[in-house]
Amino acid sequence: MGHQRRDISFASDGDICRGWFYQPDGTTPTPVVVMAHGFSAERTFRLPAYAEKFAAAGIAVLLFDYRNFGDSDGSPRFLVDPDRHVEDWRQALAYARSLPDVDNDRIALWGSSFSGGHVITLAAEDHAIKAIVAQVPYVGGLEVSLSIGNTLKAGASILADKIAAMFGGAVTIPIVGPEGAFACMASSEAMQFLDIVDDSSAWNNRVPARALLTLGSYQPRDVAPQVTCPALIVVGETDETTPPDLAHAAAATMPAAEVSSFDAGHFEVYLPPLFDDVVGQQTQFLTRHLL
């Protein structure tokens, strides 16, 4: 099935979030999947490939960037804050529900990594959501593991960033780095993040250091039992970024969850050769619950 893509925008706490709406050809109103990316990632980082598959199956897609990312407004740039992210999701949902070509009774959420946790959080509070897909989700339960030297760097960077924030600025640290490096994500697979970055993006491998404070306090797994809609939890069994045992444990507390398991790490699910299988299972799940 063909589709048309148009630019969209909506307000969130005084700033403008921007994105795309994929409208399948044919009759309306249609079901819709609301999508956004994970930790410090933008919508152009492989997410159009998913959106196009869903639209081809007859499901509309609203794909957006958080404040501070992509072409959305907000400063400092690249600020990661789960409370702000979840509020952006709420506003995206409200915008989707305002569209005349959307069926409000058939709205699903799709998130990956950090936003996998966001869709769990949203579905726990909004029981009108029809279904969710949480791909390699961050569900909490992680502690930032740093060497003594890197711990001192983290503390100093967070303090400096907090001071800079008082004046509208930011002190940044690397998002990803090789194993043992000082970065938000530093493992043998972390540098694969760069494989999904869109070459045309102004993104860089930096994030305001205050993001480190969110990793321990944000715990989507705590509200997972309140997710009553059908949920597809996609797990990479060799994932070093969002450990599979935590994802399985969270899924086990959801009344209507099913698990799609792959012999893969955190970033392999976005790319060939695994991508077609991953998105195929997700499309089947969404078709089953929305069409």
Structural overview:
- The protein has about 290 residues and is α/β, with parallel strands linked by helices.
- It has one domain (about 5-140, about 220-290): Rossmann fold (3-Layer(aba) Sandwich), CATH 3.40.50.
- It has seven helices and twelve strands.
- Strands 1-2-4-3-5-6-11-12 form an eight-stranded mixed beta sheet, sandwiched between helices. Strands 7-10 form a two-stranded antiparallel sheet. A two-stranded parallel sheet has the order 8-9.
- Helix 2 (about 80-100) crosses helix 3 (about 115-125).
- The longest helix has 18 residues, at about 150-165.
- The model has no long low-confidence stretch (mean pLDDT about 95).
Write out key terms for the chains shown.
single chain; carboxylic ester hydrolase activity; 291 residues; AB_hydrolase_fold; Rossmann fold; eight-stranded mixed sheet; alpha/beta; Serine aminopeptidase S33 domain-containing protein; FrsA_esterase
* Tally of individual domains: 1
**Beta strands, count:** 12
- Counting H and I runs of at least 4 residues, what is the number of helices? 7
Kindly report the name of the CATH homologous superfamily: Alpha/Beta hydrolase fold, catalytic domain
Summarize the amount of helix as a percent range.
25-40%
Spatial order of the strands forming the largest sheet: 1-2-4-3-5-6-11-12
Largest beta-sheet details: 8 strands, mixed
The average pLDDT is: 95
Provide the low-confidence segments as ranges.
none
Outline: globular
Distance between the termini: 14 Å
| Secondary-structure arrangement, i.e. CATH architecture | 3-Layer(aba) Sandwich
**What's the CATH topology name?**
Rossmann fold
- The chain-level structural class is alpha/beta
CATH class: Alpha Beta
Element order, helices and strands?
Answer: EEEHEHEHEHEEEEHEHEH
Radius of gyration: 18 Å
Strand content: 15-25%
Protein name: Serine aminopeptidase S33 domain-containing protein
Keywords: Hydrolase
GO molecular function: carboxylic ester hydrolase activity
Pfam families: Hydrolase_4
